[in-house]
Amino acid sequence: MADRAAGLPLAREGVPFLLLTGIPALLAGMVGWMAPSVILGVLAGYVAWFFRNPSRVIPEGEELIVSPGDGKVIAVEQEFEPRFLKDQSIRISIFLNIFNVHINRMPCTGLIQHITYQPGIFLAANRAEASVRNEQNALVIERFDGKRFLCVQVAGLIARRIVCWVSPGEGVVKGDRFGLIQFGSRMDVFLPADSRPRVKVGECVKGGTSIIAELPCAEIS
User: Fold this and answer.
1) Which of 101, 105, 162, 167 could form a disulfide with 208 if both were Cys (CB 3.0 to 4.6 A apart)?
2) Are residues 126 and 185 in the same domain?
């Protein structure tokens, strides 16, 4: 799979929002309506900042699992994942506030087994029940060694649209962009139970760059 958003300064989904704020800001300035022009200009600047799409240097090493998003780690828990993996796992939850980069990235290289969208409500994404009750999109990724991972894009209090650029059956590469969640959200990633977490609650991470866990070397072939 090619990284569909590589080389773009901002995600394509942000262009309509930028036009809706930037063009009126320009027109208002041209007719001398300075206050509306400034307000709309600030909004346009924020939209461009929110949908920014920075390049990242991806750590090498198949045993290294990278963060699927930018934000703050709000949970590192060992638990049974009943819906998709149906196995013991380690869940790492990352809260993305409205100032974080919202591009989502693959935590590992593998094959997309299936993608499941679930409609839901819009609780604040840092609440525990948001993982189950909020609108979300779940991707199951299987590595070359049979290890399976689950990434769940969870909409937040403000977010109303989850974007996913990949499809079942596609091969993916660690660090590649696979989607985004608009205006505040959360990423839950479920790892194999024998993974060794490399982050703690309260730490800030960057998608594709920060190493969140490591697999035992014996599992790598």
Assistant:
1) 105
2) yes
- Are the CB atoms for 200 and 73 separated by under 8 Å? yes
DSSP strands (E only) in the chain = 64-66, 71-81, 87-96, 103-105, 110-118, 136-142, 148-155, 162-164, 171-172, 177-181, 185-192, 196-197, 204-205, 211-214
Per the CB < 8 A criterion, the answer to whether 151 and 129 are in contact is: no
Question: Using one digit for the tens of pLDDT, what is the confidence trace for 42-91?
Answer: 888 888 888 888 889 999 999 999 999 999 999 999 999 999 999 999 99
Given the residues 67, 89, 185, 210, select the one marked as catalytic.
185
Count up the domains in the chain and report the number: 2
Annotation says 185 is catalytic: yes
